Amino acid sequence: MARTGGRLHYAPRVAATDTPTRERRSSGTGSSLGPPWRVIVLNDNHNTFEGVAGALASTLPGVSYEVGMRYANRIHNAGRAIVWTGHRELAEHYWETLGGHGLTMAPLEQG
Questions:
Q1: How many CB atoms within 10 Å of residue 4?
Q2: What's 57-87 look like in SS3?
Q3: pLDDT of 18 strictly over 70
Q4: What single DSSP character describes residue 106?
Q5: Counted domains in the chain
């Protein structure tokens, strides 16, 4: 803050950094992280709609029980549904967790 001509002026402070800027590597897909991974749940004869909806709601961020029921219906009618898409590490985590709930999982797909 400086006083000039009876007025106060605020000068923003900019933090100096010695860290050099690095370029991201491109995998040729338009993203340095590569294509997303798909978590797919398959229809089976041993899980109930309620069980599928509960497993999805308790595992996937942003999925409520109601949304889980819609996924369960899609899984039942189409035989499968992509329930989450994103980075590989999270996809593997969600895939393992949903499998641990007893859901029948397709292998992770890239794309």
A1: 7
A2: HHHCCCCCHHHHHHHHHHHHHHCEEEEEEEC
A3: no
A4: P
A5: 1
Range of the domain at 58: 47-111
Look at residue 57 and tell me if it is in a domain.
Answer: yes
Give the tens place of pLDDT for each residue, 66-107.
999 999 999 999 999 999 999 999 999 999 999 999 999 999
Q: Residue 77 — φ and ψ, nearest 5°? A: -80, -35
Q: Is the pLDDT of residue 54 over 70?
A: yes
pTM of the predicted model as reported, rounded to 2 decimal places: 0.71
Q: Are 80 and 106 in contact (CB under 8 A)?
A: yes
Number of H helices, E strands in the chain: 3, 6
70 found inside a domain: yes
